[in-house]
Amino acid sequence: MEQNFRHCPKFGSDKVGSEVMKKYIPRIIDSVLETRLRRSGAVLIKGPKWCGKTTTASMRSKSILNLQNPKMREKYLETAATDPLSLLDGDKPRLLDEWQIAPNLWDAVRQAVDSIGKPGQFILTGSSVPPLEKGMHSGAGRISELLMRTMSLYESGDSNGRVSLGKLFEGRGEPITSPSGLGLEDVAFCTVRGGWPFALTLSADDATKIAGDYLETIVNRNISEIDGVTRSPARVWKVIRSLARNTSTPATLETIRKDMSGDGIPVSTKTISEYLGALERLYVTENLEAWSPALRSRTVMRATPKRHFTDPSIACAALSASPEDLLQDRNTFGFLFESLCVRDLRVYADALEGNVFHYRDKNNLEVDAVVHLRNGKWGAVEIKLSPRGVDDAAENLKRFSEKINHERMREPSFLMVLTVDDLAYRRQDGVYVVPIGCLGP
Predict the structure, then answer these.
(1) Which domains does the chain have, with CATH numbers?
(2) I want to staple 37 with a disulfide (CB 3.0 to 4.6 A). Which of 120, 133, 141, 409 is the partner?
(3) Dist. CA 33–CA 227, nearest whole Å
(4) What is the pTM of this model?
(5) CB 52 within 8 A of CB 194
(6) What is the DSSP-derived secondary structure letter of residue 285?
(7) Contact yes or no for 333/312 (Cβ under 8 A)
(8) What region does 353 belong to: left with phi over 0, alpha with psi -120 to 50, or beta?
């Protein structure tokens, strides 16, 4: 998959201002959205606030319904309750921004798609998942869903992308000798700054504050607005800080409960589960599920997901960690670096119609990430902040591969160690060593 991330493509919507087009930084999801619009009547783009959903959707839209417009919001809500189909009038594709503010629009879109009978009619965006009301249709077959994430290092221009995940799956990863432009200090900064598009327009110091502002909004307003349940901001902060301390680990509800018990006020795992559910519906968190391959032995799999925020900067903000703090605490930096790599792998895998998992069995053999495509191809990735861990990581990957039943699961398309180093290369044993500053879609 090749895109020019330095120049904005001509998207051909006269309703989109030329200045917006000039400033737009193309995203990997652009081509995925275009493909979905060709085969679906409507596409829902969901994901965390501030990740760029509205901007990306507007580049493909010819008219927009902005439900957050303060001057029109009440009128839109009143119309949505009485005549929602009238809000769908406009040039197509029509963008319904933050549709969940008026949930009636969901069934209206489904009905309009059935009536029009053509693909590419509507784009919906949403930063939270409202519960479907009784009688509402799931949208299956009419509304295709896309999860948009924060920017990968390739999209933000920090990775040169010379090592393509797609080409590795195609068997075109050789010869691979590519320098990386990112040193350890650069990676620490990128981890704290995160992949928020607006951060790229700010000074370095201001950019590292974006995630903190994001968390303040989530804790003090959004987490109670999502379902009308009032939640204690102090308790929410404690949950988020516990998740930050346990980033990239399979922390249990009991672990989080113990983290929160310091104020002497008891909290149940049921309450914690409800808080975690709200954070997930706001796309603040996205756990990494366990992979279940075909094994030669009856190995018992450990299916506990690993805890991750949708962007590593959220964990940094919760821990009040600066780039300098990460450089001083390499252990914490290692867990956050893993989260950064998982985010990028997920962005690149989405474009390949794939998913990312982790692996852990009863013998504690672990692999940080397994990228599995819909066509059955897969690759395994170990993530090491320091190049000194590459040898052990490569041996671990080979042990893991030997446990897989290759008659049922195929041979891996690649085994890779993601790290921070000067050069990408392939070892004599076939394992790729790739600096995160070289990885791309």
Answers:
(1) 18-147 (3.40.50), 163-440 (no CATH)
(2) 120
(3) 29
(4) 0.91
(5) no
(6) B
(7) no
(8) left
